[in-house]
Specification:
The complex is a heterodimer of chains A (about 200) and B (about 450). With about 200 residues, chain A is α+β, with helices and mostly antiparallel strands. In chain A, about 40% of the residues lie in helices and about 10% in strands. Chain A starts with 5 loop residues before the first helix and ends with a helix. The chains are: A alpha+beta (about 200), B alpha/beta (about 450).
Chain lengths: ~200, ~450
């Protein structure tokens, strides 16, 4: 799979309808592609270009700026360990090294079974709960080596599946379709004039 | 130590189990201010209340929100409100709480702001990494639409506005307002040159645009409900209202607190039992970071009030309200390196002094940590800093389009000036001075 499925194309059209200009839907559509495949596949970028009347290079040009988009398969669970200042002050590097040893990979790597990736990341806005990490962008606070190991076991056993969907899925609730009325320019203007 | 107190305004629902739901929000008085605004006030009257509140923007620059709103040129439509929920500054941690724990309060603030601004469309841009905030806001928006609080003919009146929820994909620089607009247009998040691209004049799609921070707008329902003068009376005349501050690092109880603005001091926040309860292990403050983009502060600054003009005058800034406390065991060189690595990684690459300069700084500090520092390296740090921001002054002079690069210079300059001997010790001995802990411990040889 890599082009967007029919169902996702429908979602994509709804998202496009919420913006005055098509290209504004580019980042949301890249997230849709990543949700589908776990990374942003090349064919998906070509498909997105078609949907938005862009050249594929424009799609890649934007996508490659942003850290969260991956262009090759990564672990089903990406564990992002914050090592920024607040976390560094209370043991983030020990946590990172523990994680590397536990999983047998270095930061930036993926386990052979394709289950886990680790990254040493910038601030994730959980500074008062340091050291903190995110697994597929779900938070874990004040993580000790023991708590880390427990989390890995739980992920392996599928115990955390309900709260941690596979990499690529962010919000599990979507904004419902309301064709943005304000994009119907004259109607919006008439209302402003009336006031 | 007695601390000034005030009502919890924007954090009032943080302890309410269902405070993030529509039912919980309405039960606790939610959406009353929106109804009041659209049924009994003109847009100008709403704007007047925000002016009277004298609320400073909570995103970092601290510009008066009401004044910013006034920059929109009259009668140019369409015009947009963009909400900056791209909180990524190290140490800063409050917008995420507001979005996760009280999403309706933010939505109410957004709709009221759009009413005051005569804007028919708002874009709520959340940081990509904040899945729960995105989810809570999506649910809240769906409920608000279903209850006629967003969308067409709000509360049965003739005001309509759409709020489009969207999010980024990992880039600190997108928190800069013009970069955020670029990102919203589907581009790489690189800042625009101001002038001419002041958002209020040439913003999203080259139309007039107001970009407001999450915390700023979350205060709007209170300001409209109770009146701007009531809000103003809660803080100092020069820094009004209540304000959220996050304190992390070497304190006993790190946390996020809503405190009277402008009158509470750093010491109260760090030491009072109702806040952080002092430095860990009974230790002392070596230095603290009032904003990671700014000059560090030291023990002699502890009794300073959290008041914008006071802190500005002392040569730093409150920024987005994220403070990091470092006790006397802190490895200054490692702390500087980690902060600079952040700026080097997050530089968008558009301007040479920032792209090259932050990378140089990072490499020089890294080789000190690795035991390969050279005697000339301290001066080299200052020389590269000087090239990024001539004079290494506060506020930093800019050689770049946005403040990111020059921001990296301030922490290094303040640390080198104060703790030069620690850098020299690293260069000479390849390790920190006695009594200081390397954050890399046994792994010093293999880290990053």
């Amino acid at each position: 799979m890599s082009r967007l499925t029919d169902e996702r194309v429908k979602t994509a059209q709804e998202i496009i309808g919420r913006f005055p200009r098509k290209k504004s839907a580019l980042i949301p559509l890249l997230h849709l592609a990543q949700e589908q495949d776990g990374h942003v596949a090349q064919d998906a970028m070509v498909h997105i270009a078609e949907l938005l009347d862009l050249a594929p290079a424009e799609v890649y040009g934007t996508a490659s700026f942003y850290e969260m988009f991956k262009f090759h398969p990564v672990g089903k669970y990406c564990i992002n360990i914050c090592t920024n200042i607040s976390c560094q002050l209370v043991g983030a590097w020990n946590l990172l090294h523990h994680a590397e040893e536990r999983l047998g990979i270095k930061s930036g790597g993926t386990t052979d079974d394709g289950l886990f990736s680790i990254e040493d990341v910038e601030c994730i806005a959980a500074c008062t709960e340091a050291p903190a990490l995110q697994v597929n962008y779900r938070y874990r606070y004040k993580v000790t080596p023991g708590a880390f190991d427990e989390m890995i076991t739980d992920l392996e056993n599928g115990k955390l599946s309900p709260e941690v969907p596979p990499y690529g899925t962010l919000a599990t609730v979507r904004q419902e379709t309301t064709a943005a009325w304000s994009n119907r320019g004259s109607e919006a203007q008439a209302q402003v004039d009336a006031r | 130590m007695s601390v000034p107190t005030g009502p919890r305004i924007i954090t009032s629902r943080f302890d309410v189990a269902d405070g993030h739901t529509y039912a919980g929000y309405v039960r606790t008085g939610g959406y009353a201010s929106l109804r009041k605004a659209v049924s009994s006030m003109t847009p100008q009257q709403v704007h007047d209340e925000v002016n009277a509140a004298e609320i400073q923007g909570r995103g970092g620059a601290g510009f008066l929100a009401g004044t910013k709103w006034g920059f929109l040129p009259a009668d140019v439509h369409p015009r947009y409100l963009v909400i900056n929920g791209d909180e990524s500054e190290p140490g800063t941690y409050k917008d995420r709480m507001l979005m996760e724990l009280d999403p309706h309060q933010l939505i109410e603030g957004i709709v009221i702001a759009c009413y005051a601004l005569n804007a028919a469309q708002a874009f709520l841009y959340v940081r990509g990494e904040m899945a729960l905030a995105q989810e809570r806001l999506a649910q809240a928006l769906n409920d608000a639409y279903a209850n006629n609080l967003v969308g067409k003919n709000i509360c049965g009146g003739n005001f309509s506005v759409d709020v489009t929820l969207t999010w980024g994909a990992g880039a600190y620089i997108v928190g800069e307002e013009t970069a955020l607009i670029e990102s919203l247009e589907g581009e790489r998040g690189m800042p625009r040159l101001k002038p001419p691209f002041h958002p209020a004049v040439k913003g999203l799609y080259m139309q007039p645009t107001i970009v407001n921070n999450v915390e700023t707008l979350a205060n709007v329902p209170y300001i409209v409900g109770k009146g701007g003068s009531e809000f103003k009376s809660l803080g100092a005349p020069t820094s009004t209202g209540m304000r959220m501050f996050a304190v992390s690092g070497h304190v006993n109880k790190p946390g996020v607190f809503e405190v009277p603005n402008g009158v509470t001091t750093f010491r109260m926040l760090f030491e009072a039992p109702e806040y952080c309860g002092g430095v860990r292990n009974g230790g002392k403050v070596k230095a603290f970071i009032p904003s990671v983009s700014a000059m560090w502060f030291f023990p002699e600054h502890l009794d300073m009030a959290l008041d914008k003009p006071t802190v500005d005058k002392a040569g730093s800034m409150l920024g987005a309200g994220g403070f990091v406390v470092m006790d006397e065991t802190t490895d200054t060189v490692a702390a500087c390196w980690r902060i600079v690595r952040f700026f080097a990684r997050e530089s968008c690459g558009k301007c040479t002094p920032c792209r090259e300069g932050t990378t140089w700084l990072e490499r020089v500090l890294k080789r000190m940590l690795d035991g390969h520092g050279r005697p000339e390296d301290i001066d080299l740090l200052l020389e590269v800093s000087e090239s990024i921001s001539p004079g290494i002054a506060w506020p930093p002079r800019q050689t770049t389009i946005c403040p990111l690069g020059p921001s990296a210079v301030s922490p290094i300059a303040s640390a080198v000036r104060r703790f030069r001997h620690e850098f020299a010790h690293y260069i000479e001995h390849g390790r920190p001075i006695d009594g200081v802990e390397s954050p890399f411990h046994a792994h010093a040889a293999s880290h990053a």
